[in-house]
């Protein structure tokens, strides 16, 4: 007869096997669903159900992408748009995290800084485009500042909230041990606030690409938005849709990078 331990181990193995098969099934479904959608789209275009002048077939959009890659326009546009996002994220992230730390640690800063920040957060930052053009011209600066403005608020709110949720007993222990401010920041505040700040970073990246889509539509002479605008003038719907797909892929890719960093940085929580 089998021992109880052997039976228990077999039951656990069976359950884990069923769970793995179920997870694999849902993964296959998640991958297959967009593929089926693309096939239906292509099939509908081939039958003439979907007009080509309204929504080109996926094969035509892919051909447009190959055309942009071969003539080098896509690579140049990616470099320009990526640099704008990096600059805006660095500037807005520094401001958002810096103010979030200050407000989270000081009630005086909360009373003086948080009300103006909440008022600015309530403004639709894309509605400030006309003012930014008047103030800063039509060059790179207004585009970078718009991205910075958009990304600063999620990081500010998440940093502020994360610091306020740190266990007060940890601060009491640090005070008893005579920790300096920088020691508390390095050993208590940053590790405790990191998960929520990384969530804010993911939100900020999504807002950065969304802001850039709009900013590059106005008085741009380079970047993915310029390609889309140029394609609109020549009624190249295939290039317009391809440009939007590139924006979406950039957003997904940067989010995946942050998630991978999050899993590595917070592996101690597993």
TrEMBL record:
The chain crosses the membrane at residues 6-21, 28-50, 85-108, 120-138, 144-163, 206-228, 240-261. InterPro entries: MetI-like, MetI-like_sf. Residues 78-258 form the ABC transmembrane type-1 domain. Its main location: membrane. It holds the Pfam family BPD_transp_1. CDD domains: TM_PBP2 (cd06261). It is a multi-pass membrane protein. Keywords: Cell membrane, Membrane, Transmembrane, Transmembrane helix, Transport. Belongs to the binding-protein-dependent transport system permease family. This is ABC transporter permease. It comes from Mycolicibacterium komossense.
């Amino acid at each position: 007869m089998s021992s109880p331990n052997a039976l228990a181990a077999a039951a656990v193995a069976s359950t884990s096997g069923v769970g793995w098969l179920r997870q694999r099934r849902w993964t296959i479904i998640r991958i297959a669903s967009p593929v089926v959608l693309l096939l239906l789209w292509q099939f509908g275009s081939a039958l003439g159900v979907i007009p080509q002048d309204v929504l080109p077939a996926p094969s035509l959009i892919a051909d447009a992408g190959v055309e942009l890659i071969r003539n080098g326009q896509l690579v140049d546009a990616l470099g320009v748009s990526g640099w704008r996002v990096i600059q805006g994220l660095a500037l807005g992230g520094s401001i958002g995290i810096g103010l979030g730390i200050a407000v989270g640690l000081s009630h005086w800063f909360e009373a003086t800084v948080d009300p103006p920040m909440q008022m600015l957060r309530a403004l639709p930052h894309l509605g400030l485009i006309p003012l930014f053009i008047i103030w800063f011209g039509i060059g790179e600066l207004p585009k970078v500042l718009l991205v910075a403005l958009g990304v600063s608020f999620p990081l500010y709110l998440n940093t502020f909230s994360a610091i306020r949720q740190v266990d007060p007993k940890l601060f009491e222990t640090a005070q008893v041990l005579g920790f300096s401010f920088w020691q508390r920041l390095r050993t208590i505040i940053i590790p405790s606030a990191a998960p929520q700040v990384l969530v804010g970073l993911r939100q900020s990246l999504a807002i950065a690409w969304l802001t850039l889509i709009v900013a590059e539509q106005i008085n741009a002479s380079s970047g993915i938005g310029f390609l889309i605008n140029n394609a609109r003038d020549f009624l190249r719907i295939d290039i317009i849709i391809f440009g939007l797909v590139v924006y979406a892929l950039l957003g997904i890719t940067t989010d995946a990078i942050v998630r991978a960093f999050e899993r590595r940085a917070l592996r101690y929580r597993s």
